[in-house]
Design brief:
The protein is of the alpha+beta class. It is built from 17 helices and 49 strands. The protein is globular and about 95 Å long.
């Protein structure tokens, strides 16, 4: 027993020694993470934070050591601004042995942003771009001695400020609007553009090692990246897929000869010709130690299944395995043969994606055709999941957000150009879930410099990231920037005073640098010059269209804050609407300060976090258009009511706009609707459908119906006529018969006052206009006032009477007048009871599922369910239905929450209920 204890203590001591010295002695080709026991401090030694792990950032380290409070609470975005103004040092001890390895490289996969790197007394180099991988040869320093690995970070805020003094032509905008509480000149540096603040996010100009840092050991060549271009082809009479593989080999940091054999396999899939499995390579790397080797594989069509977007089929993926063996392995027996072998596996999908821009009667179409099928793109815009880049790679949270998108029937996300090239996990999940990716390069809402150093690092940034991301079947298209073309054409930043120079810079950066670099590393996909843009209808005048928002070409971004967003008549849409949306406030219980703040204090905090230069007025104006607006800002219930109404208004606006776009598939050729935005980086007023932390706003709950593959769309059009459209995104069967029932209801009665049924034949993957019914004329015949009535619509399969009484395949509603105009006799306040039917917590996944019964005495308008603040330990709580119209006495709603340890028991008193009725009757 004593001997066993001694051995156990010896093992523990050995492990601690290894961690302290990070002394690597592996004989194999390897990547060794240097993640443990770093010390972070400011250059003056005031703040010293030991025993940190990387990936890391200064704000995160200071929070964990309790030097500062959470960056995301109260006014800490301003109170901690000093962090970004200071210089910081990361240091750890490193001991390594070069053994018989030919190459030992210290590789930083992400350094944010400006740092000098030292190992012992040697200056290895400097970093200047957070999106670039940096490699340093340290073989001669791997002699067993312990040296300090040190990164001396310079403030990005200060660096950007200093760079601005050297610009002959101001790079605009020089600073964000004052309401952002942000930092200036972020467009002069290659850092996440939103880290200096945005209209939806706080300033958090962090520094740190935000991706892994590794020691790479090998003796021949390392496979860094694999790219693929997969296309359909005919070989004789046989249909095949061709897989053009690009193998990016690295051998140190200088030009050297390499000689060896590449082996290719698609696991479980026979290649068209056995000779394709191997390729002899005898060549020389370039001055950076890199070599691209191209090789073609062929696969029979019937040997694989296609990859499809969400809702159209399965997301079948295959593993492509590539192995490098040095030629010396075929000669004498080597002592350490593994050091001359490198292997890499990526997952690929067999699919075709075309961005179709064929002529139309009034311009050019603009839609994605996947595997020959036109796809209406339904989805959202993705911003980083955290304002701190090291936290944005949180695997579980990214998974949660992507599943939320998939479950809302989305098939596309647009990775926005002011954020990050996302983690490998993000793209793998997108592949698995069938979420097509519209991918901006990381340039947004700015002009940018074009000096030689800036273009050099941009070119390297684009090259590295396109190579890393390119093989994912989910990636559908690249765009070189977000809104920079339209900003230049519409003079957002007063560029007209020197338009020729700004235009020349635009062309030099995107047309002459970014575009060819993307195309050289990914010939498989189309590259758009901007978003929005006119696509292939590109103006000849220096690539800047006269109207980049022309609805007859390309994509458009549409925002309107001044007309009634609930009114469908104001929306037309374009060929593809890649941004649109409206703000709301996060739930009252989501504000961590709400329990201790009074109404006045909470108002001040919300106003501080409202970064839109228009303030809260658009939110309030839309509520005033349609709903009773709370007036007493000092009342305790003011913010809970206003937040509820803001979320209802946002959901109605995005619902109305999205459904118009889906209905206009044939009328205006609209084939894409990506609302702004899916997620958030803090609790603040924003356009998101999911709050930071994972709480669904009403909008996201509604999206399950708004984006449903079989949907019934109805609205009052510009001619004040009821327009009803049956929508099918499904491919089978070729046709369906739907019975569409339209019921007229009084607001105060469960029973309809009239109904109308139409039968319509709906083709696969199309929309069909339902024969018109003159609703307002019918109300006039019955002597009924529109303000007292609404429509409930249901679609059923087949035309039999029995099918009308069965479960509907789609349902919707139409308001015939503004809710605030409901007449007094129909303003009824329901008695509402909540009963818990069942509550089960799964201890394996800590997921609590609660079945709730909601009972109402009279119809209830837009029933809003929330957990009380006392349940704050529960996370990511979602109701299956929320903000719903209840025109039946009883309905069942499911609540799911993450409950660590299954400690909570949810009871009826834990659920609060609000309705529009409450506001109408007081």
């Amino acid at each position: 027993m004593l001997d066993a204890l001694k051995f156990f203590l010896f093992v523990i001591l050995l492990l601690v020694t290894i961690m302290l010295n990070q002394h690597v002695t592996s004989k194999r080709s390897a990547e060794i993470d240097l993640e443990l026991l770093w010390q972070i401090q400011d250059t003056k030694g005031v703040y010293i934070i030991p025993n940190q792990t990387v990936p890391s950032g200064v704000y995160t380290a200071l929070e964990h050591s309790m030097v500062i409070g959470s960056l995301l609470e109260e006014y800490n975005d301003v109170n901690t601004s000093w962090v970004g103004e200071m210089d910081w040092i990361y240091r750890t001890n490193l001991s390594c042995l070069k053994e018989e390895y030919d190459y030992v490289l210290l590789t930083f996969h992400g350094v944010d942003t400006f740092a000098d790197v030292y190992l012992g007394e040697r200056h290895l180099g400097s970093t200047e771009n957070m999106f670039v991988r940096y490699r340093y040869d340290v073989k001669d320093l791997c002699d067993g001695d312990t040296r300090e690995l040190r990164l001396q970070f310079r403030s990005s805020v200060v660096e950007a400020r200093e760079r601005a003094t050297h610009q002959a032509l101001p790079i605009v905008p020089t600073c964000p609007p004052d309401v952002y509480h942000g930092q200036c000149h972020v467009n002069l540096i290659r850092k996440m553009q939103a880290s200096f603040a945005w209209d939806w996010g706080l300033a958090a100009p962090s520094m740190g090692i935000w991706k892994p840092v590794r020691l790479e050991y090998y003796s021949s060549a390392l496979i860094r990246d694999l790219t693929v271009a997969i296309n359909e082809t005919d070989v004789g009479t046989e249909e095949r897929w061709t897989v053009d593989v690009g193998v990016y080999l690295e051998a140190g940091l200088s030009s050297v000869p390499i000689n060896g054999l590449l082996t290719f396999k698609i696991i479980g899939v026979p290649l068209g010709d056995e000779s394709e499995q191997t390729l002899a390579v005898a060549n020389r790397t370039d001055a950076n130690g890199e070599l691209l080797v191209k090789h073609r594989l062929t696969v029979r069509k019937d040997a694989v299944e296609r990859w499809w977007p969400n809702g159209f089929g399965k997301q079948t993926l295959y593993s492509l395995y590539v192995r490098w063996e040095d030629v010396s392995l075929n000669g004498v027996k080597l002592k350490n043969p593994d050091t001359k072998i490198s292997e890499k596996v990526i997952r690929i999908g067999f699919r075709t994606v075309q961005l179709v821009q064929e002529p139309a009667t009034d311009g050019l179409m603009f839609y994605f055709r996947v595997n020959g099928v036109p796809i209406f793109a339904k989805g959202s815009n993705w911003i980083p999941s955290s304002v701190l880049p090291e936290r944005s790679y949180d695997v579980n949270y990214v998974k949660f957000l992507l599943y939320a998108a998939r479950d809302a029937h989305m098939n596309m996300l647009r990775v926005w150009g002011g954020g990050l090239y996302e983690s490998d996990h993000f793209y793998r999940m997108a592949d698995e879930l069938g979420l097509l990716i519209w991918h901006d390069l990381m340039f947004a809402c700015s002009m940018y410099p074009t000096d030689a150093d800036f273009l050099r690092t941009v070119k390297e940034e684009v090259r590295q990231n396109v190579r890393r991301i390119q093989h994912h079947p989910s990636v559908a298209v690249w765009a070189t920037n977000n809104e920079n073309e339209v900003a230049l054409r519409q003079n957002w930043y007063k560029t007209d005073t020197n338009i020729s120079n700004y235009t020349a810079q635009y062309v030099q950066l995107y047309v002459d640098t970014v575009l060819p670099t993307v195309m050289a590393n990914d010939p498989w996909r189309l590259v758009l010059l901007s978003s929005p843009s006119n696509g292939e209808h590109r103006a000849e005048d220096d690539y800047i269209a006269e109207n980049p928002q022309d609805p007859h070409y390309g994509d458009v971004h549409y925002y309107n804050y001044f007309l009634d967003g609930w009114n469908a008549a104001q929306y037309r849409g374009g060929r593809f609407v890649s941004e649109y949306g409206f703000q709301s406030f996060p739930a009252f219980t989501s504000w961590p300060e709400a329990r201790s703040y009074g109404p006045a204090e909470l108002t001040q905090l919300i106003n501080h976090r409202q970064h839109s230069p228009l303030g809260n007025e658009p939110i309030l104006a839309m509520i005033r258009y349609n709903l009773p607006l709370p007036n007493d800002a000092s009342a305790n219930d003011y913010w809970p009511e206003l937040i509820y109404l803001s979320q209802l208004s946002q959901a109605m606006i995005v619902k109305t706009e999205t459904e118009v776009y889906r209905a206009h598939r044939l009328q205006h050729g609209t084939m894409g609707a990506l609302y702004w935005q899916l997620n958030d980086v803090w609790i603040a007023p924003s356009w998101s459908s999911i709050e930071y932390g994972g709480t669904f706003k009403l909008l996201h709950v509604w999206l399950r119906n708004i984006f449903a593959p079989e949907h019934l769309i109805a609205f009052i059009n510009e001619r004040r006529q009821l327009e009803v459209v049956a929508v099918r995104d499904t491919l089978e069967p070729a046709e369906q018969l739907w019975d569409v029932e339209i019921r007229i209801h009084r607001y105060g009665s469960f029973r309809p006052v009239d109904r109308h049924i139409e039968t319509v034949r709906v083709s696969a993957n199309s929309v069909k206009l339902v024969p018109q019914w003159d609703v307002y004329g019918r109300l006039a015949q019955l002597g009924l006032h529109p303000a007292n009535h609404l429509l409930l619509l249901y679609a059923y399969r087949n035309g039999s009477e029995q099918s009308v009484r069965s479960q509907p395949i789609a349902e919707n509603f139409v308001l015939l007048d503004k809710l605030k105009n409901i007449r007094t006799d129909q303003r009824v306040k329901p008695k509402i009871a909540i009963n818990v039917l069942s509550a089960v917590c799964n201890r394996q996944n800590n997921l609590t599922s609660v079945s709730l019964e909601v009972s109402v005495s009279v119809p209830a308008l837009f029933v809003y369910l929330q957990l009380t603040p006392e349940n704050s330990t529960l996370k990511q709580c979602q109701f299956s239905h929320n903000g719903f119209l209840q025109f039946q006495p009883i309905r069942t709603v499911k609540l799911t929450c993450v409950d660590p340890g299954c400690r909570n028991t949810i009871q009826a008193r834990d659920i609060t209920v609000r309705t529009v009725n409450d506001l109408l009757v007081r």
